[in-house]
Amino acid sequence: MSLYLESIGKYGESPFLYPVYGLGGLPESFSRLCAIHGGTYMLNTPVDEIIFDGDQVAGVRCGDQTARAPLIICDPSYVDGLGKTNITGKVVRAICIIDHEIAGTKSAASVQIILPQKQLKRNSDMYVTMVSHAHAVCADGLYIVIVSTNVETDDPKTEIAPALELLGEIKEMFLQVSDIHEPTNDPVAENLYITKSYDATSHFETSSKDVLAIYEKITGEKLDLNINPDAGDEDY
Hints:
With 236 residues, the chain is of the alpha+beta class. The chain is built from 7 helices and 10 strands. It has a 5-stranded antiparallel β-sheet with strand order 6-7-8-5-9. Strands 1-2-3 form a 3-stranded antiparallel β-sheet, with no helix packed on it.
């Protein structure tokens, strides 16, 4: 609730931000910024192996090509089988396509609903996020809804039933259960910085904190977005 109130009016009438054309807009924007600073993107290039020189990373192998690097930042899927992470739980996500508004949302173009754990008699909250044609992610008249929560039983689909009931008739649903990984390696010693898996939350607050923590480990200082490095200490 505090985060919601702090966000109202910052970037328009809604407290929510969502990239047009979907979340793929985030890496697309980053790739442009990366290129400005001399970075290179290798598209459609799966990483086959992380190369080590002793106890430290030295680069990655992609087929017959090798890219050398002084450090590597990756998500847990890139170190699968290396013993660098522990599984701490599971998340169930249901991507649903509907052709009507969610009842009680007053024709809103986007919706976020949080079902409190106490109300559901669970140990974790349940999240419902809806985006629409306004975000250029689906055809006009359709809505995409993502339901997510931590798995607490052997029947994840039944667990999310309270959220699915809010949606009414569902035209199509894609269900996925994913492991939650947390890194166990020493990133400073190995120069291998592994992010945590995405949790069940729908507003990316925990992911943002993870990124900031990795930045501090690499640079030794906290990221200050209020300081313009090209203008001394003046705010911009």
